[in-house]
Amino acid sequence: MNFFLLTVLKAVIIIFVLLTFCAYLTWIERKVLAHIQLRPGPYRVGPHGLLQPLSDVVKLITKEGVIPANANKVFYVLAPFLAVATALLSISVIPFGPEIEIFGIKTQMGLADLNASALLILAISSLGVYGIAIGGWASNSKYSLLGGLRSSAQMISYELPMALAIAAPLLIVNTLSFREMVAAQSGYWLGFIPKWNVFAGPFPQIFSFLFFLTAAFAETNRVPFDLPEAESELVAGFHTEYSSVNFAAFFTAEYANIVTICCVATLLFLGGWTPLWPAAYGSDYVPSVAFLAVAAVMLYHATQPLRFWDKYTYPVFGLIALVFAGAFQVPLLKPILIPLFWFAAKTLSLIFVFIWIRGTLPRFRYDQLMKFAWTFLFPVALVNLLITGLLVALT
Amino acid sequence: MPATVPLAWFLILSAVLFSIGAAGFLLRRSILTVFMCIELMLNAVNLSFISFAHRWKAVDGHIFSFFVMVVAAAEAAVGLAIILTVFKNRNTLEIDEVSSLKL
Amino acid sequence: MHQLWLIPVFPLAGFLINGLAGRRLSKTVTNVIAIGSVLLSFLWVVKTLMALGPLEEAYVEHYFNWISSGPLNIGFDFAVDRLTAVMLLVVTGIGSLIHIYAIGYMSHEGGYYRFFAYLNLFMFFMLTLVLGANFLVLFVGWEGVGLCSYLLIGFYFLKKSANDAGKKAFVVNRVGDFGFSLAMFLLFVHFGSLDFKTVFSKVAEMPQETSFGLLTGIGILLMVGAAGKSAQIPLYVWLPDAMEGPTPVSALIHAATMVTAGVYMVARSFVIYEHAPIAREIVAIIGLLTAVMAATIGMTQFDIKKVYAYSTVSQLGYMFLACGVGSYASGVYHIMTHAFFKALLFLGAGSVIHALSGEQDLRQMGGLRSKIPMTFLTLLCASLAIAGFPFTSGFMSKDAILLAVHEHSPLMFWIGVITSAMTAFYVWRALFLCFFGKERGHHHPHESPLVMLMPLGVLALLSLAGGYFNIPHWLEPIFGRPHEEHDTALVAVSVGAGLLGIFLAWLFYVVKPGIPDSIANALGSVYRLVYNKYLVDELYDATIVHPIRDGSTTVLWKGVDVGVIDGVANGVGTTARGIGGILRRMQSGNIRAYAAWVLAGAVLVLGAITVMGGAK
Amino acid sequence: MDGLIFLTCAFIAVACATNLVLQTHPISSAISLVGVMVSLAVLYLLLGGEFIGFAQLIVYAGAIMVLFVFVIMLLNAGAERQYKRSVWVTVLGVPLLFGFLGLVAYFIQSRVPATDTVKFGAWTGGSARDFGRVLFSTYLLPFEVTSILILIAIVGAIVLAQKEID
């Protein structure tokens, strides 16, 4: 039963980390958006508003949950559950690092290691639409219904280019397992150019990567494809009628989906946890240096406190950063943390792109959205797949 | 509980699902539900295919059920379009009210 | 590879361009394409033959596997040997000349591009026929030229007689093709191949058949096919009618090239005939009979083209006779010389008709010698050649034939000599009627344009001197060395017969124009019989056409079609409607009821299987 | 263990299927059908159908059924009205159904020997690689024909569903 215990433990850790991260993702998003718009963003709760997510969670949980009259109660409650369940399910096959060994127990840095993880991701993401559609329908509100309809049509439409964009790098790595995929992308050309699918292969998958990201925006209902929840047209789309925990569930699901899809993009195109340049050139010291820099900034701020608490909080956070910087060089933790760092760095960069796009691009019109999927994205993704396939077959 | 499952159980499950689908086809009046019952029957048949594929250790059964899926997809596209048209022209989804060939 | 396929492809391209886009092209462009393609083809033939050298052996090119089904394996192959080379040169050479001539002749006709498109298509098929390395490719060309012949006979499709003539040609040819097809089936069944090389090498190993056997059957069937195409008894009736087509067509297709395809085929299959003396004898007899009969009819006709048409039939009979007595080389020799002078005769006749604005009746002509001197001179050359005037081309080939015939059977020789006298008579009769005496019609004749006269000139030269291409010698690798038995007496006899014919014609139609009428009166019914072409058309009408038509009307249409087929169809319909009337009650429109029926059916089937013990 | 997994999946499948037939509202039926499909997909995966199991999820549950839900929502189809049933369909149909089921069960019982057992994970020949290899070699022609079928379906669906052009 060791296996079960370990799995349960890993599940708990991953879910806890993921949910916390999702919560902090709201903070990151608000902060980044704020800086894009030249304002400070959350600043009151904790240093730089770092405790803001915590207070948000408390607020959402303690609010009164309202079930609208004439709503279909079963489905109304079922919908957010479905949404969260599918979102969390797909994270289960994401490996965050290589196989590791702690205290003599060999295990994967991920919940499950399937032979067909990529297929599972596609399958689960195609099921994700039910939560939104059912939620929109069960609310018995025209805004919700329209949001649900839009999202189901949109997600079906963008699933095709997404699948095609995934298929192209799969042809190159010749496997459906994420672990083997990363293994296929490790190594360097000329000693320093990483063999990631975006750069490498018989046909660099830069186009696939762009198509995948575009489709991912639509799949996660993000700007510029956030029509299911377009506030200027549909108030809040499918979750207009939701409040309290149910609302939080939808929210979490959305952010969890973003995280998942960024992880998948990292694994498929950016080489997973492989470092940007070889360890021989000192890539192992990057995390320590980065955290040292953070610590330095924190400690510098501590010497010039703007508010009363800054004298105490900044040194604490600076010390935490210092500890992290040190932890990356502890031999026991090194093989675990370094890959994790690179994986997180890449995923976070992608998430930053998500937020960045949200801060800069306007929303599509609905017909443009569909037209874009079917008349541009789908054919070019197909052509890209064709070219990749031909080149793979020829080499 | 035995460590193995008799093949017959899978087939019985398949038959039961098929019969439920057929019952739904006979008893329900909503075109949409009837259509879903057809899909259920197709699924039941697929289960048989895949059980047999396991039994004979041949992937051909999977191919058959794959084709069934493809055909079901095509059928769903056309069928739902027909349902939309029927609804547009007759404003009903009752299968018993669609009893003449003329629209 | 010498790219033999280019030879027929040039005219095909011409056909496609003219046929598809001709309506939009100017006449000049049409001319350039039509004649250019044939000339290119001719030049390619010359180039290829020069490149191929002496051609002792057949040179074969395989392009693709055309039909491959079980034991049947037929390639699309072209082959060139010495026989093909002669045919290629004749077809493309004469074809080019006639194409050029047609520019002038057809300049005032409607459907100009259509005419040239058909003509090019004909060239394509004719070249395919000649180049084919097996019976089936040959057959493709064979059928193709038949089609073009039909299209071109019926070129003036507004004229009923032209349409009828076209249909007649087509139907009569079908009879021959039937024989040809049967021959091919037999060949395939017994030799497992249709390749000339394979078949003939297998035949060569067989012993000569003294009685009626397989090879005799094949030979006779092939001859039926050849008789259809080459207008021999009993299938010659279409050729005189084919003169409804434009004169260049008559010259090219119905005199110089297509009609010789039958002779070519017989010569090609000579191995079979060498092993089947009975079949060969039949060929000889048919040829001789045709020659005599056509000659007698030719003497009485007044339509200038009809005269030449019967002359063609008669000359083709000569060629058959040559083949029948085993002198294939002289037959092919005669194909060539005949192509020269008969093409010239027709083109000359065309020139006369052109000059007289469409008049074809000899009785309306006369005294044209000074009006259209060039035409007269060239026709004179042709008439000399066909009459076997010494040292002309006709003399050479006819002599070769008659010598061979004499060796085979003196009786046939004498009949042949008489025929040759008749030939000289009717050709010169036409010449005298046309160019001598006083003008009879009310026309204003004018000489033809240069573009028509030039081919006439070339052909006139060839008619006079073309015999010096020593074809029998050239063909020795194929047919073997002919018996060099130059009996001067026999030559003198045949020349004498020709001169006698010329003299009689001169006597009857220039000196004493009254004689023919008095002879006709004296002979009375015999003359009328011959004048009416022995009533063969009427005979065929009465014995074949009418019975078939009446039988079709009464039995097949009124009886079988209306009674049986319609009855069955209606009966099925009525029954189905009756049953449907009962079963209709099941069609309630209730989909779920249908589903229940399907289910009931499934249960029934399963139950039946159980009851029958299928579920063990 | 295998028996327990099978019975769980089978129970979910049959329960969902029954629910599909019993529910009056189409959307409930649709969600029930998705439940059937998901549990069947699990069975497929256990039977070694790695590819077909995910295909079942992607194609059936993820595309076809979403289409159904979409249409139900689009038409705003309400619950089925309860009124007189076509009596004879029930009278004829239900016994027929039981007859059918009984016959099939008899067939299975008589033809499939009890020794034919399934061990989950004993055969894993249904991976995407194996599947693709067979699909694109032995079944290439049917596959290509299917693409034409789908093309026809697309065209048909568009023609049927388009707004009338007057």
Q: Tell me, what's the shape of chain C?
A: globular
CATH architecture of the domain at 30-92 in chain B: Orthogonal Bundle
Number of strands of chain C: 2
Share of helix of chain B, binned: over 70%
Calculate the mean pLDDT score of chain C and round it.
86
Distance, first to last CA of chain B: 57 Å
Radius of gyration of chain B: 17 Å
Quaternary structure of the protein: heterotetramer
- Average pLDDT of chain B works out at 84
The helix-strand sequence of chain B is EHHH
Query: Could you give the count of β-strands of chain B?
Result: 1
The share of residues in extended strands of chain C comes to under 5%
SS strand fraction of chain B: under 5%
Helix content percent band of chain C: over 70%
Biggest beta-sheet profile of chain C: 2 strands, antiparallel
Q: Can you offer a commentary on this structure?
A:
The complex is a heterotetramer of chains A (395), B (103), C (616) and D (166). Chain A is mainly alpha-helical. Chain A contains 14 helices and 4 strands. The radius of gyration of chain A is 22 Å and the shape is globular. The mean pLDDT of chain A is 82. Chain B contains 3 helices and 1 strand. The longest helix of chain B has 31 residues. Helices cover 74% and strands 1% of the residues of chain D. Chain D has 6 helices and 1 strand. The chains are: A mainly alpha (395), B mainly alpha (103), C mainly alpha (616), D mainly alpha (166). Chains in contact: A-D, B-C, B-D, C-D. Chains B and D meet through strand 1, helix 1, helix 2 and helix 3 of B and helix 1, helix 2, helix 3, helix 4 and strand 1 of D.
